[in-house]
């Protein structure tokens, strides 16, 4: 249930309402908005409790919502969620550009591509140190050595870094280096991992699972928020459809405006995994920005043919820079900067 406090309610009155909510056996999440405070009552919605709370003079209104994804919903928080990572604002007016290779393959190559994407206009560096590979015989990542290389790239470029965590065992080590932690498509419903990441003081980007509905994706994000982490980014990265020849996944651009209406969280788009082919990345990036994406996650490699992971979908740095220039006009049209 969502309890909207009267705009004039003071701290004492808010606490009184919280006490009442708890007395019915509910948990509480408080959101302090610009105009009023909203309390999320965690538990099954009940008409009698709604009436009891609405009888309190400091309560403006109670909304009975199904608790499946309450904290991520627009009903719970009207204002868009925005936060800063390093000097970069996520969910603000600027479309955030995250770029880098699929995997960190070595020090020289990573530092080179990091410098190149920074020059091209990237705001955040990406790279995988722990890779979720379909085959156990494929390159699995450099693990901590990869994280160290990314941290060095951050020192050199001044850009924050995002990298994926694969399991609960490596949360601590990844959090030691990363500015944003990525939950991959394959882990979207790893609820124990999500709960642990929810207790961390680090922003988390959660990819949409390859067969996940929008509701399942939002409920996965709800795990992060309900366990304490409010700095969450949703990332659409394509879903499985019957098409496997011309694209690797089907990028669901329609998810962007839908999720932005349903949720206050920033929504990014990953056109690289979304298409699987570098050739379609620029047009899908244009579409994503036009649809209202708050950021793009793009794979860039200096020598895609030699890449240990996801070469066919990686742009070379020159193409990345060209793409950024062409995105500016679209960003402006939809009231964003780039
Ligand atoms: C990645 O970003 O490199 C990755 C593995 O993505 P996804 O989880 O979307 O497949
Ligand atoms: Mn990849």
Can you put this structure into words, describing what you see?
It is a single chain. The protein is of the alpha/beta class and 338 residues long. It has two domains: 62 residues, Phospho-2-dehydro-3-deoxyheptonate aldolase, domain 1 (Alpha-Beta Plaits, 2-Layer Sandwich), CATH 3.30.70.1140; 251 residues, TIM Barrel, CATH 3.20.20. Helices cover 35% and strands 18% of the residues. It has eleven helices and 14 strands. The strands form three sheets. An eight-stranded parallel beta barrel has the order 7-8-9-10-11-12-13-14, surrounded by seven helices. It starts with a strand and ends in a 5-residue tail after the last helix. 48% of the residues are buried. Bound molecules: phosphoenolpyruvate and manganese (II) ion.
């Amino acid at each position: 249930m969502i309890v909207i406090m009267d705009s004039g309610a003071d701290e004492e009155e808010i606490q009184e309402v919280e006490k009442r909510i708890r007395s019915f056996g509910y948990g509480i999440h408080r959101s302090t908005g610009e105009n009023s405070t909203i309390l999320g009552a965690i538990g099954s919605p009940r008409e009698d409790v709604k009436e009891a709370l609405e009888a309190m003079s400091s309560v403006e209104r109670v909304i009975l919502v199904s608790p499946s994804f309450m904290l991520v919903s627009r009903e719970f928080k009207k204002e868009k969620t925005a936060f800063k990572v390093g000097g970069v604002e996520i969910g603000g007016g600027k479309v955030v550009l995250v770029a880098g290779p699929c995997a960190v393959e070595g020090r020289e190559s990573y530092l080179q591509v990091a410098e190149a994407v920074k020059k091209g206009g990237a705001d955040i560096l990406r790279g995988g140190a722990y890779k979720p590979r379909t085959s156990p015989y494929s390159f699995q990542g450099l693990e901590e050595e990869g994280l160290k290389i990314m941290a060095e790239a951050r020192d050199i470029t001044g850009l924050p870094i995002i990298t994926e965590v694969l399991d609960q065992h490596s949360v601590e080590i990844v959090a030691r280096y990363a500015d944003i932690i990525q939950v991959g498509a394959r882990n979207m419903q790893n609820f124990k991992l999500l709960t642990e990441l929810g207790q961390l003081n680090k922003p988390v980007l959660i990819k949409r699972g390859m067969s996940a509905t929008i509701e399942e994706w939002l409920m996965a994000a709800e795990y992060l928020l309900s366990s304490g982490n409010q700095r969450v980014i949703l990332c659409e990265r394509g879903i499985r459809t019957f098409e496997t020849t011309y694209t690797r996944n089907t990028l669901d651009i329609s998810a962007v405006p839908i999720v932005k209406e349903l949720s206050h969280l920033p929504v990014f788009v990953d056109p690289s995994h979304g298409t699987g082919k570098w050739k379609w990345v620029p047009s899908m990036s244009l579409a994503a920005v036009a649809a209202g994406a708050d950021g793009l996650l793009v794979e860039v490699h200096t020598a895609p043919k030699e890449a240990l992971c996801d070469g066919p979908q990686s742009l070379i740095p020159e193409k990345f820079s060209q793409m950024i220039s062409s995105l500016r006009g679209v960003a402006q049209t939809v009231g964003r900067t780039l």
